[in-house]
Protein 1
Amino acid sequence: MGWLRSIVREVWGLFVDDGSFAAAIVVWLPLAVLVLPRVGVSTRAAGPALFAGLAAILIESVLRASHRRSK
Amino acid sequence: MHLAWTAVAPARAVWTRLGTTVVAAFLASLVECVEALTVVLAVGSVRGWRSALGGAAVALVTLAAIVAAVGPALTRIPLHLVQLAVGAMILLFGLRWLRKAILRSAGLIPLHDEEAAFAKNTAAMRGGAGSGRGWDKVAFAASFHITMLEGTEVVFIVIALGAGGTGLLLPAGVGAAAALLVIAALGFALHRPLARVPENTLKFVVGVLLSAFGTFWVGEGAGFAWPGSDLAIPCLMVAYLAIALCLVPMSRGGVLPVEG
């Protein structure tokens, strides 16, 4: 059963290694899907807005990791 | 002119989706196959090839059965729900790879070293080497274990890429199978780990591809109208790639050699 546990651990590790990075994505996706169309963002602009949020999360996470490691 | 464009555009969109699916599955699977090959080679060279290859073969059959069972079952779920769920998972997966590849390229975390992994696994396998006759349980289990671990990631990638639209499971599977064949052939010919494979560069590219697919599918599943329809996928790839390439020098604050 040890191999099964390591597979479960491996599958979890597929999605999460930096907790706050994964949490930010998990929070942003439902916000973008549910909230953007209700606050007047058109369906044509919602896709680029979804991308912009994800790009911002990536940039913030990489720069934060860089500052943390350079200290 | 307008009629010609309307005929060409859907065909181009179909090929864009099929082509990017095959390439993404191939490259992502290539990385995982290299990691599995390193351990299978270490096991086989120390404890014998019969048990090492037997363990890997049983794991591959198990993984193929999982794809055959889970893949078609996904087609019974409404497409927009699959796109939302799989898109979210592939985003978590792809953006994690991309972030890690950026940090590795910037020299902030160490690169994966297949030669070191091979030496470590070879040393671990030396104790109580098999007799060469019959099945060596340790070698079989080690080989099965690593093939299942890395193969699970390949299965996830194939199912995730294949779930994005009708008829995409086959091209995703073809991409993964091609990667397996290429790596198996190279491993068979060289009998040593593929240390020269630019693993981080591959992870960089795959991170970009998967992030673009994930973003597109979440948008499609949510009912967003992407400008350019399917052609938004390559545009997203270019945008993620540009951001990632800018982040490498920004995060290292100097110039370090990037893995080829």
Protein 2
Amino acid sequence: MATHAYAAHHAAAPQGFIRKYIFSLDHKVIGIQYICLALFSVFVGMALSILMRIHLVWPNAKIPFIEGGIMSPEQYLALVTMHGTIMIFMVLTTAPQSGFGNYFLPIQIGAADMAFPVLNMLSFWTTFLSLAVMLAAFFVTGGAPIAGWTSYVPLSAIGQITGPGEGAGQTLWVVGVAIFCGAALMGALNFITTIVDLRTKGMSLMRMPLTVWAWFVTAILGLLAFGVLLAACILLLLDRVGGTSFFIPGGLVVTDQIINHKGGSPLLWQHLFWFFGHPEVYIAILPGMGVASHVLSTFSRKPIFGYRAMAYALCAIGFLGFCVWGHHMFVSGMSPYSAFAFSILTMSIGVPSAIKTFNWLGTLWGGKIQFHSPMLYAIGFVSLFVTGGLSGLFLAQPSLDLYLHETYFVAAHFHLVMGVAAIFGMFAAMHFWFPKMSGKMMNEPLAKTHFWLTFIGVYAIFMPMHYIGLAGQLRRYSSAESSAALQKFIPVHEFMTYAAIFTVSVQFLFLFNLIWSLWRGKKAEMNPWHGTTLEWSIPSPPPHDNFAGGERTIYRGPYEFSVPGVAEDYVPQYQAPEKVGKAH
Amino acid sequence: MPGAVAEELEIQRGDRGPLGPPADGGEEGGGGEARRVPRRAYFTAISLALAAIVMFFMALTSSFIVRRGMGGDWQPVRLPRILWLNTAVLLASSVTIEAARRKPARGFAGFRVWWGITTALGFAFLAGQLLAWHQLAAAGVYMASNPMSRFFYVLTASNGAHLGGGLLALLYVAFRPWTPGAGARITQDTAAELASIYWHFMDGLWVFLFLLLTLGR
């Protein structure tokens, strides 16, 4: 380890508001900026989903902010598109990885900052620009795009003629996503370099906290996946504005007009998109897995069950994530032999996922469990991951998928497994690390109330969704009133809408707790949870340069809880062997 | 061994003690801007950047191969002959950049001349590519003309953009002070080595794309 010689000197914090809080180079400030961006985006995304749910059950309701007051089917699709896009790119990709990762990765490996602070700042502001461009789609002629977050061609490529949002709105979407690719690539490069080259003395790969392992694998996925999406976006943009036909097939007639493009392949877009899109779902969920492992071990007061297996399972999921994109395309007319291969590979992801799940349960088994709020969220994460993950095995069968494709069953599956589970991972992270980030404790009774209400709420939304999916309702229909077959589902839709309104309202409890605790929370000590990793060795909140120029040495693995013959029930990674107290 | 010289330079710098925070109190933040990351971090970063670039071009390449395989309306495009000259120019620039790097690190003059020639060759390549576009356009082949021409323009433009980034790096190294100030994070040797790794890679990338366009025509 040659790194430490370089890292050691004390640096003063920058003065002045702009350098300190806006164009900051400090990984902690940038992490908080990402978290704030994700918080803003998640409330926008939730507002869109509530508007959708309201429209599904009261199609004639007057809705504010909607042109004409009553939502048209196209406006409904615009909400679907923007809800998905904002949630996936601006919430699930930014908060778990760029937000919490930025803040805690350097600290957990004993580095003073990310390897390239300027690149880090640039990455955040590029993300911000991307969000601004995407949101601008709401305010242009025709409004937001209607092609869904997957932007399938030809709908997304031909322009205004295919729908109101398909003019300027869709162009802004493509540009926004392309900008996001740039931001994500810069971030991924920085993360990997930091982990590879800036670990402190003694921090071998197999002593890294599992959070760091998760951020590491996620960054590798991001590095390899976002370049492909960028290429796809450039080709799509050229099809839209450059007159080319990479994706647009010949002979299209839309609203009685012949489309003057020929020779493109719409399937090519699907391949390129899902080659990115499938790793993307692991980009969303892996950091949550890392946090869940970390929190479960800490509050079970037990070493994580099967540390190496956990680390290898993360790598296996990351690797397999690149081999299964075809399972999104079973109905595209692909050869049954390809479908068979994609199906087998998809189901094989069940193996590392099961390793992780059983190891989480093994960690809990026989532990001295402390039900602090982060622990509740981590257990909630495991529950949601299993519930949502199991339906993935159904969808991995091409023969079943022919029926279930594009139904609410799919929507229920991915919302549980990558949406809500990942969000619970973030709740766990926020409640676990809030004392470190702010120096204040969060209000526990409020947090626990929020956990239970949210946990019940999300199951109430998404469990019934499986049933209407199995019963055959397609997920992009803006109304269930048009057909007698669908009308039977309206009471179920009403239930889900009430559950959604309830769950979203409960989130204000979280927001209130966050703000209240920042302002009035009980003061946090350095290590309130009796954790073992490096972030608990420095003051709360950490000083500008993390370790004040000092350099930490790591003596052992990250989860040494309840070690026999030791006085305390935890031995920090950074405690020298001679300082570990013996039990009397 | 330029690498060894660079290590030595870095060690000498290190011997001066940890390059303390600038006198103004280390305004730059982030754990201190003068904080040094090990030299190898830059090589990790450049390898990762190249991996991402490979993925980008592989996406375009596989699109090209898929589209070529669809056949039907494929029309071969006669590639301008100037592309052969451009390729030769770019290959020559890889030789000259090596010549620059092999000059002893402190023999500035030789380094500068060869580095300057490399930069000039880089600009010549880009100008040649623009000329090739011009010739194609004059022959009535535009980007939207046919399936092959789309890929030709997209691949050459993407390559040109990445190569342009390489040229900026060459210019940065050329105009960088020979003895960087205390705030600098890398030595001139490291900067030159990183720029040349990128440059060689761009060279290889163009050769690959040129072969793809020629053979896949």
